[in-house]
Amino acid sequence: MNLKITSDTTAKTSGNAAVPQKNIKTILKQLESDGIIGISVDCVIFGFDDNELKVLLIKSDLEKFDNKWSLLGDLVNNHEDLDQAAYRILKERTGLDDVYLEQVKAFGDVGRHPAARVVTIAYCSLINIEHHKLKITDNELHWHRVTTLSDMAFDHRQILDVCYEWLQKRIQEHPLGFSLLPKQFSLRELQNLYEAILDVKLDRRNFRKKFFSMELLEDTGELETDVPHRPGKLYKFNYEKYQKKERKKWFGIDF
Amino acid sequence: MNLKITSDTTAKTSGNAAVPQKNIKTILKQLESDGIIGISVDCVIFGFDDNELKVLLIKSDLEKFDNKWSLLGDLVNNHEDLDQAAYRILKERTGLDDVYLEQVKAFGDVGRHPAARVVTIAYCSLINIEHHKLKITDNELHWHRVTTLSDMAFDHRQILDVCYEWLQKRIQEHPLGFSLLPKQFSLRELQNLYEAILDVKLDRRNFRKKFFSMELLEDTGELETDVPHRPGKLYKFNYEKYQKKERKKWFGIDF
DNA sequence: ATTATAATGTGTAATTTGTACACAATTAGC
DNA sequence: GCTAATTGTGTACAAATTACACATTATAAT
Questions:
Q1: B228 touches strand D (CB under 7 A)
Q2: Given this model, what pLDDT does residue B135 score?
Q3: Judged by CB atoms within 8 Å, which residues 47-76 of B form the interface with A?
Q4: B5 in contact with A, Cβ within 8 Å
Q5: Banded model confidence at residue A133, pLDDT cuts 50, 70, 90
Q6: Where do the CATH 1.10.10.10 domains begin and end in chain B?
Q7: Contact B101, B125 (CB under 8 A)
Q8: Which residues of chain B neighbour A108 with C-beta distances below 8 Å?
Q9: Which of A32, A184, A219, B56 could form a disulfide with B45 if both were Cys (CB 3.0 to 4.6 A apart)?
Q10: pLDDT mean across residues, chain B
């Protein structure tokens, strides 16, 4: 599920190929007049900063959605897998190629794109904002709070909502959250992350007890720096150990 | 999530339109030569019979996959939503239009279809085999055991695996399972269903206790018939009550 | 009618898991 | 050295899960 690929984006331009942004309208117009369904990928890129969940958005380039915010997406190249297309977009926009990325859902309602029939595959990506802070000097690319955000282009608000709910559920069952933090993190940071994403208040001692009992956090021996109080220990998540754990198929019926 | 729509399939034939089966190869050939990505929907239709999970398959009509089994699918019509396309296929093949249906995942690897580049959206459907037993006299349409099954066309084995795992997880968190049973069912039937799908053995008393404590099963006052032993009570699932329940966002971290 | 068979229906004790809660120890900043 | 702020830790209670056995009821065979 958790994909880590360095995508090769040297495919040729043909069909629904990746092309410079300014030609995309021409392609869509062509698709529409030919009665062809286009395929795109949209990336919901989450980051965590200032104890809040953020999403990376760009200003829409369609007149209809003037001044509205849009997810990062592009048409899928004829010679690349869907996952590769998502990686390509992510790399183009953030410069990162070693990130958590997972497909969430396809959105394909007839009227979702004003220019043509386009089915889009939504991907969810989690990145550490600190790591690429300098690279997003692009055109109108900005982080936005997930909770207070409206005026999105297309059906991107709906896509974002679905991905956010997906994340809330997923983070409790899989170790995704660490992708939003530095490699080394304090338990306080981890708890803040869970509290922000789930919008709940958790007991500090029980939270620690839970994570320690999983035995997947490694004490790095280092301490926080630059905090105006007693520094906490820094831990890192042990992915190898997690991978080796056998998955149980019985969780218990609960609905 | 749980969609129940009666699909309208009167759309015209244009572009990736729904067409008689024999023309599909022509369309694919055209797509390939034009460098266009096709979009299809594939339905993984599960049924439960003889205490085993079954899946509804058809013989592939491609030479390359001669004698291999294939999911039920079709190209997406230019004027229908993805969900509608899935419903259309389901209705065409089973005659049923009041069924559980949910999107699971898009599959779009470059080489997954031999004739052209085709991205497919996989849907999972759960139906009661008894209810439509007579309608599947179609060409080579048959139920297959999920566990002992190989030789599938395209990447359909992979799609089936993903959908089966999806089902195993989903059935523990959402009341899907009832769609595989008659409207009225005994607790034994329900437990058999869970045991078969999850491949686990469950304690009968604890299983009952769990379901009764949820207070979503209604005693119909009726009893099983045609069993060669003491008949069990028949229950039905109360969907209205379930819908009214508030969803909790905190389940507890566990991975 | 009697009996054998095969399942239903039920309760309790033991274990595990989750929750609520308070105080001493450590570091930075003044 | 004193204050402020946060870390680090344990225990008692509640809730949920698990393990487990026997009387009851209908059918089927005799």
A1: yes
A2: 62
A3: 76
A4: no
A5: low
A6: 181-255
A7: yes
A8: 39, 76, 81-82, 121
A9: B56
A10: 88
For domain B1-180, which architecture applies? Alpha-Beta Complex (3.90)
Domain A183-244 has CATH 1.10.10.10: yes
Nearest to A142 by CA among A50, A58, A66, A60: A58
pLDDT tens for each residue of B126-154: 999 887 765 656 678 889 999 988 889 98
Binning pLDDT at 50, 70 and 90, where does residue A204 land?
very high
Rg (CA), chain B: 20
Tell me whether B173 touches chain A (CB under 8 Å).
yes
Instruction: Provide the mean pLDDT of chain A.
Output: 88
Q: Are B79 and A14 inside 8 Å of each other by CB?
A: no
User: Integer distance in angstroms from the first to the last C-alpha of chain A?
Assistant: 25
Assign domain A21-173 to its CATH architecture.
Alpha-Beta Complex (3.90)
**CA closest to C22 C1', residue:** A205
From residue B15, give the alpha-carbon distance in Å to each of B27, B129, B158.
9, 35, 28
Residue B58: how many other CB atoms lie within 10 Å: 18
What pLDDT band is residue A43 in, cutting at 50, 70 and 90?
very high
How many whole angstroms from its chain centre is CA A122?
10
**Where on strand C do bases come within 7 A of a protein Cβ?**
5-12, 17-22, 25-29
Determine contact: B14 vs chain A, CB below 8 A.
Answer: yes
Best to test chain B binding among A78, A162, A248 (most B CBs inside 10 Å): A78
* Annotation: CATH topology of B181-255: Arc Repressor Mutant, subunit A (1.10.10)
Global model pTM greater than 0.85: yes
Question: At residue B73, does pLDDT exceed 60?
Answer: yes
> A173 Cβ partners below 8 Å, 6+ apart?
B251, B254, B255
List the one residue out of A7, A17, A40 whose CA is nearest residue A156.
A40
Listed by number, the residues of chain A in 29-48 with a beta carbon closer than 8 Å to a beta carbon of chain B are 34-37, 39
Q: Where in chain A is the domain with CATH 3.90.79.10?
A: 21-173
- pLDDT over 60 (residue B9): no
